[in-house]
Structure formats: C-alpha cells, structure tokens
Design goal:
The complex is a heterodimer of chains A (193) and B (263). With 193 residues, chain A is mainly alpha-helical. Chain A is built from ten helices and two strands; from the N terminus they run H-E-H-H-H-H-H-H-E-H-H-H. The mean pLDDT of chain A is 89.
Chain lengths: 193, 263
C-alpha cells in the first residue's frame, strides 16, 4: 500500500471520529423533567407572549424560567386532558415543588447578560438569541458538556462552531461581533462579573 | 499606553482621612460584597486577600503633638499609563472605555503576578489557595460577583456588580443613564462616618468633583503620573505631605516573622 494513501485514510478516519464520535462522547443527553409545549401557550390557542411568563422584576433582573406559582395562576387544577398537565398539577403545583428544568442557555458564572438592556433599550427580540424556542411543540433534549457542565447551546449545535443562524451558539464572540457592529465601546467588566 | 479617552463616566472616590476612625467596616463590607474567601491558617498580611487594607500612619511626634491617621488603601484606579494594564501579557486587565474603571478578568489571568509588581500601591492580591467557604458562608455569597480560583490575581473594581445592577434598573425604565444614587460601592455605603464620597468626576454638579479639586485633597504618589481616580482629603499638612513619600515596606513593618514568611 502506498504511504500517502495510508496518510489520507488516517486523516479521514480522524476527521470522522472527531466529527461524529467526539460530540457523542463529549455531551451527556438528558430529557426535561416534564413535557412542555411553548406552542400551546404562545400559539393561537394560548395567545401569550414570552414576557407573560419570562419576566423582569422591578430592579431589572431577568427572572428566567418562571416558578410553579406562575403556572398555578392558570393550572391550579387541570384545565385540559393532557397527561403532562396532570403530572404538573399532581407532582409540582399541589405540593408546591419547583420543576427541576434543565436550562439551555445558562451561562458561566462570570458572564453578565442584562436582558433589560438588550430587550428594552436595544429592541432585540427573544428569537434573536433563543431561536424558534418560543414556538416549539416539545422541549429539546438537553445536552450537557461532560467537562464544563454547560449546555450545548452555549457552543451551538454545530460542532465546528460555524452556523448561519444568529441564535445558534451563545459564545463571547457572538456578543463581541454584535457589539462591534453596533459601535459599542465596552470594557471587560462591562459583561463580566 | 494612554487610556484617557473621552469617557461617559469617570467614577472616582474621595476619602476624608480626618473623618476615618479606622473601624474597618469598609474592609469587611468589601470582602462580603465581593466574595473574598476567609483567610486560611497560613495567610499573613503579604499573601492574604485584602482588597481594602487600612494602614496606620503617625506623625512621629511626642505627646501632645502626636497624631495618627488611618489610610484605607485599595486599587487607586489609575487613569493614565495604568501600570497593571500596561504590563499584563494576557490582556486580563483593561480600563473600561465608558467608566474609567480598571477591570480585571480572573479567567484570563495566568498568574504571573507581573501586575502586582507593577502596582505602586500594592493593591493587587494573588490567590495562593483554593477559595473555601464554610456552609453557612456559602449561603451569603453574592450571586452578582463570580468567585475567583486559585492562581489568579484579583483587586477592587469599585464594586462593578453594583454598576451592573444600577444599569439593569435604568434599562428597565428605558434609561441609558444610571441614577447616581443606585451605584454606591459597598465601602462607601458601610462607612459609619461617611468619610468616603463616591461619584462621577465628569459630572460638574456632583459633590465629588468640587471635593476632588479642593486644595486639601491629594492623591498618593501623584508624581508617578498615573492619575489615580481615588483622592484623599485632609486638612492636616503632615498628612498631605506623606502622600509623596516613597512607600517602604519591610517584613517587620508587616508584622511577619522571617520564618513565618518562608514557611
């Protein structure tokens, strides 16, 4: 066998392992604790907006995923027929236990992202960073990086790090690029804490 | 490297040494606010984490002329030729172009401690040990400040997390300008004698601006030309005169025995 063929075969083998096997090993997949459809709430039947549940408090702090108290405002007792709603009421709302949601967009401790500045002042839409999450029928599988513990959404689904969608990946270079395009002048501690 | 670009804000501080009684409330508030871990047994004054130290300075006169002042010392937020920033090989230190605050990103720091050597004020501290909090203290950690790991340098950043909170509050109301009352560092807030004035030096109507330009106000080692944004204020001449004296430190003065330092 010719040596250059061995070399090419080796590179190909390495690339295939790196592309397909590496992400499978690197990420741990887990399901959300409860089935939840954003579309049921935000679609025609629900007619709710993202900010109806994902609120900002009076000090400007974004509240993230709402607590079960918010769910209980409508679902104190089941209003539909679905199994997941029954589970919600029985396991979480009635005993007043928080749902252990796995957060797709949780950032490292030292990152500071003010929702108020981007949404209220910057007029950005939720979809700009979170994609079509608000109109999804099911919650995606949550991939956790086994080394860092962060969600795969931080890096982005594409292992190469490149993506055509603006909302894929929530790494610092995305922040920096957008701030640069908008002529923002920032120091490190503007976005780090 | 000149960092004196036109800034939106130029946050600074004036400390009235005539009012300071050395109680240490500012140092405690600083440590609690910024998640500074408690001392481990081996720590001494040289290798501990004390973002804000309080030194005692005496005029070396005999009674009844003897006088003493307490000098709170922390990052002086140098405006020009910021020594720590200039020497950092990692770009882990920068002067914020909108606020003038000298920021430190511990995640970028490689722990060479060149900045600590460069700092004329000994205001930077190195994490020689893993930070450890007791279970009770973990409950009190400030969620707005990321804890630092072993092997990196840290320092005062004018309680930058409080500026974040003030900006958040303003943004919710649709304002780009913060309300000055919302941004007060922990040391300023905790001082029982109201010895520390904090504010925007660019704001001509703010009390700090007239106080900083007062003839009784001074800055330490101003001859170095680093233009610190922390001013001190005293009506006593000998106190103002000490500001330009070279700082000499000895192990004896730090209260460290020779064997302890090496051990």
């Amino acid at each position: 066998m010719k040596p250059y063929l061995v070399l090419i075969a080796g590179i190909l083998f390495g690339a295939i392992i790196g592309w397909f096997a590496f992400p499978a090993i690197l990420y741990h997949s887990s399901d959300q604790p409860l089935h939840f459809s954003h579309n049921t709430h935000t679609g025609e039947s629900g007619g709710m907006a993202c900010t109806d549940c994902h609120t900002t408090n009076e000090t400007g702090r974004f509240q993230g995923i709402p607590s079960v108290i918010k769910c209980a405002e409508c679902h104190a007792s089941p209003i539909g027929e679905s199994v997941s709603e029954k589970q919600l009421v029985e396991h979480y709302i009635t005993p007043n236990v928080e749902i252990p949601w796995l957060v797709y967009s949780r950032q490292p401790d030292n990152a500071y992202f003010p929702h108020a500045a981007h949404v209220t002042l910057g007029k950005m839409k939720c979809e700009d960073c979170h994609g079509p999450h608000g109109s999804s029928d099911t919650l995606r599988i949550h991939y956790t990086n086994r080394i860092s513990g962060y969600s795969r959404d931080v890096w982005g689904a594409n292992i190469s790090g490149f993506s055509s969608n603006r909302w894929e990946g929530m790494k610092m270079d995305k922040c920096v690029r957008c701030h640069g395009d908008n002529n923002r002048r920032d120091g490190c501690v503007s976005c780090h804490k | 490297m000149d960092t004196t670009v036109e800034k939106k804000y130029k946050f600074g501080m004036v400390i009235n040494l005539d009012k300071c009684n050395g109680c240490g409330a500012c140092a405690v508030a600083c440590a609690i606010e910024n998640n500074v871990p408690p001392a481990v047994q081996k720590m001494n004054k040289r290798n501990g984490l004390t973002w804000l130290t309080i030194s005692t300075v005496s005029n070396n006169e005999q009674y009844p002329q003897s006088e003493t002042v307490f000098v709170p010392m922390f990052c002086q937020q140098c405006e020009k030729e910021t020594p720590c920033m200039t020497v950092c090989p990692q770009n882990a230190v920068d002067v914020d172009p909108t606020t003038g605050i000298v920021g430190q990103v511990p995640q970028r720091c490689l722990g060479c401690r060149y900045c600590m050597t460069a700092c004329p004020y000994h205001a930077r501290y190195f994490n020689w040990w893993d930070p450890e909090w007791t279970d009770g203290m973990k409950q009190q950690l400030n969620p707005d400040v990321a804890p630092r790991m072993r092997g990196v340098v840290e320092k005062c950043n004018f309680c930058h997390s409080r500026l974040h909170s003030a900006k958040d509050k303003a943004a919710t109301l649709g304002n780009r300008e913060i309300n000055p009352a919302d941004y007060i560092p922990a040391c300023v807030e905790s001082c029982p004698n109201k010895a520390i004035t904090f504010g925007d030096l660019n704001d001509t109507t703010a009390p700090i601006t007239s106080l900083a330009s007062n003839s009784n106000s001074f800055r330490f080692l101003s001859r170095l030309g680093t233009e610190p944004k922390v001013y001190y204020h005293s009506k006593k001449h000998w106190v103002r005169a000490m500001a330009e004296k070279a700082q000499t430190r000895s192990r004896q003065a730090d209260g460290i025995a020779e064997e302890e330092f090496h051990g």
